[in-house]
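Pipeline run #58 for the internal structure catalog. This entry was flagged by the ingest filter as a single-chain record with no existing model, so it goes straight to prediction. Upstream metadata was stripped on purpose; only the residue string is passed forward. Reviewer on rotation: M.T. Logging verbosity set to normal.
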Amino acid sequence: MELQQIRYFLAVQRHGSFSRAAEDCDVSQPALTQAVRKLEEEVGGELFHREGKRLVLTALGRLIQPALEQAVVGAQSARSLAENFKLLRQAPLRLGLQTTIGPTRIASFLSVFHRRQPGVEITVEDGTPVALLDKLERGELDFALLSGAQPIAEAFRYETLYAEPYVVVLPAGHVLGRLPQIRLADVDGEAYVDRLSCEMREAVMALSRDAGINLYATFRSEREDWVEAMVQAGLGFAFMPAYSIRSRDLHQRPLVEPAVQRDVLAVDVRGRVRTPAARLFLEEIKAFAWLPAPGA
């Protein structure tokens, strides 16, 4: 059953005549009549009978008419969606954001991107790297924005967006706040809020152990908001990525000797054809003028 046959059938139903339907469809009458006859063969019965000078639907014709009308509407809707997709009107873009990557810096880019490309409709969801990569593989995401601290499997390709330094986050009045920058040795013995979800946590712990530095954790949490709240409440300092800090009441100092940083990556599936919206997103986010980190 072809869409053209359905259109000819509906034209005959509207006009009650093969000749007028052919004129309306800008096709020869024999071609239109043949297409309708072929449709009748496919559905197994006559669709029209003659009443006087007018063709009217048979019982079978009346039965299938709503379904055939819906087929035409569906095809028109599909064409419209495809056209909007190509022209970036109502074009969907699905992003995954690793939970430990703060939204503030990404949001600044998305604001600019939206003003430049208002027809791209963006959905953002957060999750662990494993969960986001799984959704990428299943085609449920166009990109995942992930930390480069963990290796990316060969099945995926990635672009580095920016480097994010780790800083020391302090409550107001903390003794370390007098320092313009903080060495790892400076935190020896200071009360510490342990950010369990940090992908760089083990690396920082290993550096501390190797240097004989004691990190005494007074509080531990996987939640970013709890870590910030406990630092603000005076339970200790924390190591955090510079762009993950949301509270304006916290003080931060660059971490030096050693400096620690992570790359933030845009990841998708190797070999998969990117949608027009995804290609444009990648072009613009790679060219975006990221502001330097606080204290950098």
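catalog note: The longest helix spans residues 59-86.
catalog note: Residues 3-86 form a domain with the Arc Repressor Mutant, subunit A fold (CATH 1.10.10.10).
status: ready for reviewer M.T.
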